[in-house]
Design the sequence.
């Protein structure tokens, strides 16, 4: 499965499950620089703790400002 497909699955899961949606919306509510730092830390810590590479790859897409805005819009306007 490609990284972009993982992102689609992450957004779909977030739309269906508040336990996924709420932390993701908090992340996406940060200003761009803070969001990028938080994602970089999340990915670094996730790799160190053995989290799913697929999940971390999907989250890493949210470093892109446009992708993050679109994800936030999708989650807020469901």
Sequence:
């Amino acid at each position: 499965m490609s990284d972009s497909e993982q992102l689609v699955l992450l957004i779909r899961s977030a739309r269906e499950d508040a336990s996924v949606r709420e932390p993701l919306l908090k992340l996406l509510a940060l200003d761009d620089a803070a969001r990028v730092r938080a994602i970089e830390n999340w990915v670094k810590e996730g790799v160190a703790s053995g989290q799913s590479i697929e999940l971390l790859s999907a989250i890493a897409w949210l470093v892109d400002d446009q992708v993050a805005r679109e994800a936030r819009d999708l989650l807020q306007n469901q």
About this structure: The chain has a mean pLDDT of 92. The two ends are 25 Å apart (CA to CA).
